[in-house]
Amino acid sequence: MFKSIKFKLVLWYFIILTIILAAFSFFLYFSYRYSLYSRVDASLQSRAETVAGLIDIEKPDLILQFNVTGTGLNIDQIGINFPPASNLYPFIEQARIYGQFIQIIDSRGKVVAKSSNLGSREIYLNKDLFKIALGGHFFFQTLKLEENTSVRLLTYPVIWKDKVICIIQVGTLLNELQTSLEKLSLGLLVTVPTTLLLALLGGFVMAGKVLKPIEEINMTAKKITGENLTQRLEVKNPHDEIGSLQKTLNQMFDRLENAFSMQKRFTADASHELRTPLTVLKGEIEVALKKTRRPEEYRDILESNLEEVDRLTKIIKDLLFLARTDNGKDFLSIQNINLSHLCKETIKYMELLASEKKIHISTRIDEELIIQGDPDKIKQLLLNLLENGIKYNKENGKITLSLHKNERYAELKISDTGIGISSEDIPYIFERFYRVDKARSREMGGSGLGLSIVKWIVEVHQGEIEVESRPGEGSTFKVLLPINV
Fold first, then answer.
1. Which of the four pLDDT bands, split at 50, 70 and 90, describes residue 310?
2. Would residue 18 count as lying in a domain?
3. Does the reported pTM lie above 0.90?
4. Could you tell me if 389 and 400 are in contact, meaning their C-beta atoms sit under 8 angstroms apart?
């Protein structure tokens, strides 16, 4: 189970979703936390600035004095006026309504005023932070006054003539803020695992539906054997990836069925081709052994046997050649070929065979036409086409070989005045062991492999071959071979 694609797919889906939800939860929590703290800080800063604005520094009637000697202000005393009639004390007390408290300390750290909700408590400011405040910088802190009681505190220096004369501290309890964050945390702790669980179950259901066609492919593939090659996959949605895979597999099954059919036909035809000459050999030898014969009769029988042996040798040679090509073991030796010269040599070699049937071979060959290819394979191509033109030609017939350059190709045409090929047979003549007239072909020594070899040679040279033929009028084979392979 753990090695199945379904499990791996759901696992990756679960991991990715967990990472996304965790990242989203952290982002949501800290964004919300930042927003709450920002609002609290803004409220505290607004309160501190208002208090600072209400402090009357320059009035001569001093209600409250404090010594600032040693603060770096270089004056003996600074007067800060807190007149009872002013609205400073009421404003400090008003902070209680908003859940805030205020404390004012002088430059020596002594508390000079505070809101009543602080009672006897004072907000302690350590030396390092006190120095920062005396430097004219305000800052926020989160402190614990008591167990489970946290406050947000702003320390805000009041500056007069570029000097700090007092420090205002404004704070508020964080109970409501912490409660809001706890509710959000609890909501996320419940929602995220529940979402993941539901997503996991949904992932298994979804993966099952997605992979169901693959399971059907697996079941169908198991049914396909050498005896049952007709089974095909049902393509429900040809436009998605599974449908595309099903179509591709069906095409592969078609090719597989054709390959098996060709293999069966090839085996049957090969067995028949090999059995026929062996049967003839066996019959002639048995006849020769039945009684004593004259030397001339033995000679005739041996000559007939030799013809059958030659035929067997040719069939085996052609089969071995095709077997090497099927296994990819027949390599090309590419080199420059003078195709004009090769055509003339091959015609000279085939003229003896043509003369036995009084067939005339004429040529129209461009001089010095050079191509790249395997000379042995190209020569075999010429031999096979010319041999077919001679075998299936009429007595006193003609064969015409033309060769000329056609743009990037060498165009070779071999025409004969033979028996021709019907339009129904032309699509199959390059198949192995296919014969238009089986009985007549065997009489002429044909194996049905020559044109298969020709087609392979043309294709491995990246060329093309075409056939034009009419029964009783002859055939024309047109071969295009690229100048540069």
1. confident
2. no
3. no
4. no
